[in-house]
Records
---
Amino acid sequence: MATTSDIKNGFTFKHNNDVYTITEFQHVKPGKGPAFVRTKFKSLSTGRVLSETFPSGHKVEEVRVERHKMQLLYRDDMGYHFMNNETFEQATIMEVMIENPGMMREGDTVEVLYNTEDNMPLTVDLPLYLEMEITYTEPGVKGDTATNTLKPATVETGAEVRVPLFINIGDRIKIDTRTNSYVERAKS
């Protein structure tokens, strides 16, 4: 059992018969009254984000997890098929367990979070940033760059990203996978 003093971002625990990971936390010690920890945590089975406040010293059941680097081999109607880069074992993971499946290409390396008790995958974490090529976008109008306007663009995986007007077909861009948003042009 862990206490609220063990809580940090990425901490995985069991709560109400589900497994959650902490996405945000704040330790609060008011001038009057006992200290408490305000948290936001995400369900690893449904993806729902919940907020809850725990009194300081509250006990939670920690879930031991391991992170494995795995490579996406292919996708079919059973799910996404990954291979462990060290042991070469393969695993099939359902699409609902992946935060942003539209951003994955065959051959990409991701981190898969495994529950050590039953060796079941919990979630798939993509790298924070990916570089992709624009396969389709409307051409920007010359001189129309005075505003911070964005246009839709399709990347090589088929996902849609909003990009500035000066981005054209064939350009490589850097994408934030947490928000599916344009960061910058990729440096050659």
---
Amino acid sequence: MFDFLDSGQYDLLGAFWTTTQLAVYSAIGSLVWGTVLVAMRVGPVPVMRAFATGYVNVVRNTPLTVVVVACSLGLNQTLRFSLGADNFEDIGFRMAVLGLVAYTGTFVCEALRSGINTVPVGQAEAARALGLSFLQVLTLIILPQAFRSVVAPLANVLIALTKNTTVAAAIGVTEAALLMSEMVENEADALFAVFAVFAFGFIVLTLPTGLLLGWVSKRVAVKR
């Protein structure tokens, strides 16, 4: 049933390694972009608040496939924006990461905003009374507590991100979903085995993340 694994025809580990890289780079970028978005959304500048609110509401409700394909067709093929890559595979990979960051950052932003709402308003008021600027209040007092209170929701976002990397196949990135599509066409007599292998692969990628961040959430939870 699993003879196709021994044939050497399919680079299964290579495909999952690409998926892992997509997930890791996109997770780092999403955390950074989501933090910037939430800073703008709760900030004192009306233009930034309006931009962040509009961006989150529009991108979060746009299908991820549309976002990723737009990065590939719009930024790369139309505007010749390649993020420094000089070959098709690298360009596709970087466009996929960019699309995943642009999309997932909105969910990180909303998770952090819910965490900010758990921080007592009196702490920010006391900090401002001491002469701290908005940026100092946000980075030294608000965000550290917000991150601690939303570790579990962020874990769910990162798990969803790992599964969403399959959308990169839409622009030809050679990750797990693209290889699975090829194997489904070539191994029609072993469809159950193909699906089982890829389901197990994604479980291996996502389950440790959930368990680890669940443990971290309990360890760093803010006691109210």
---
Amino acid sequence: MIASDPDLVTGISQYEFGGFDGTASVDQLESAGSAALSACGAVQDVPMDNIDETYRYISALSDAFDVTERGEELIDRIRTQVSDATAASRDADVPVLSLSSVPDAGAGINTNGGSSFANGIITLAGGTNIARDQLQDFASLSAEAVTEANPAVIVVVSGFADSSDEDLKAAIIASPLLAETDAVKNENVVVVPQRILLSPSLLNADAVQIIADAVANAS
């Protein structure tokens, strides 16, 4: 990376800078005369309830390339798409569970925590992440906790499993640990690609729309 002498190195996560073998840290890049820009900031100590990191990232990139006005136009367009997706008012609390794999009866149920970007998408869509109180990107819930929370919407996060989206969704629906949830009983299970749910993307509004439609079905 450093050998190519870039002016700017950008990525969707702070972990891409020195967090993996072969990736340079921010300090290493700066020492080599390169700037670093991450779409996602540090983990916060309150639940994420927006996609402001997307807007900040677009703004920073457009400023870096001296196309600030185009960046502002893009931000306005995404804001409008999100607003349109969530236009319908919902009074009921709609619990949502996100899963990227089939729950294992012998382990905790892995999901997205309250400080994750996914939590912001779910919140904008009018849902309540049942792991909202766990302030971390990834969280673990017991089967009992999931049963008690009774998610009315299950979001299948695609892009991690070797199986197809359809097979992953079917396997999650067939899980005995989820059989008594309203989401499974009412077939209110939707698939959202991880690339538009877990990090800033120009298509974040699409993720909001998919989940908002499922939330509306559960309301």
